[in-house]
């Protein structure tokens, strides 16, 4: 806007010089005193300087009012209206973007809650059927369904915490092997139910990270490895050069689904065939790993298992 104002000043100056030239030509043609030209220049110069001064003062007052949001139509109506409309257009675009973002987040949350509610019905229905079928129910069968319900509930709670992630994080030094062993103990009913073999080869490596969120990442990957493994198969948890890897012998992921596994709500071919999938687990893993400076990579082949690699080099507590 200031550049335009300066351009207007230059155009005014050119017009003024043209008027002086015309007046001088008029004096020559009618044989008038050349001193009149000097008088004309001095008079018009004083008027021009005064007008330029007041115009500059007025323009900067307008700019100041616009900057402070105090718009007064009595000052430069055209200039103010143009700037006001520009600002209103920007505000409208920003509001539209925010509205679209909120609409997307609401739809994502709504879709997830619908799927989650169906997943929660599975263990609850199983418990009800067991209770209806017998007065005494095997505790192992009950514990399996309770753990399944607890897992789904924790998944929902962690999803909700993502919106306020920065206020729900505390970096501490933790032992990687101890953390892996703790997660395996807490989810042992899942692995025992399928008689899976767990091969753990992880050192006592120190990590500087948030224990709760790091536990969630590992738990989600291990639960997925269990979910898509057949009975009596093996899950290997290893560590090499700052990279933790979890490898299973399960059904694997098709190459067409592999690029989409971190998308919110994506269940893919495995989710459609085997059920019990909300499509939010790996999405949250990806979001959390980005916050924690952990690189996640997945390699898989349909029918030949999956390998998930967590690059922990940036969070090693050296």
Automatic annotation (TrEMBL):
InterPro entries: BphY/WalK/GraS-like, HATPase_C_sf, HATPase_dom, His_kinase_dom, HisK_dim/P_dom, HisK_dim/P_sf, Sig_transdc_His_kin-like_C
Pfam families reported in the protein's UniProt record: HATPase_c (PF02518)
Cellular-component GO terms for this entry: plasma membrane
Protein name (Swiss-Prot/TrEMBL): histidine kinase
Residue ranges constituting the Histidine kinase domain according to the UniProt record: 115-316
Keywords: Cell membrane, Kinase, Membrane, Phosphoprotein, Transferase, Transmembrane, Transmembrane helix, Two-component regulatory system
One GO BP annotation of this record: cellular response to phosphate starvation
Species assigned in the record: Ligilactobacillus ruminis (strain ATCC 27782 / RF3) (Lactobacillus ruminis)
Residue intervals passing through the bilayer: 12-34, 40-57
Membrane topology: Multi-pass membrane protein
Example GO molecular function: phosphoprotein phosphatase activity
Enzyme Commission code: 2.7.13.3
Main location group: membrane
Catalytic activity: ATP + protein L-histidine = ADP + protein N-phospho-L-histidine
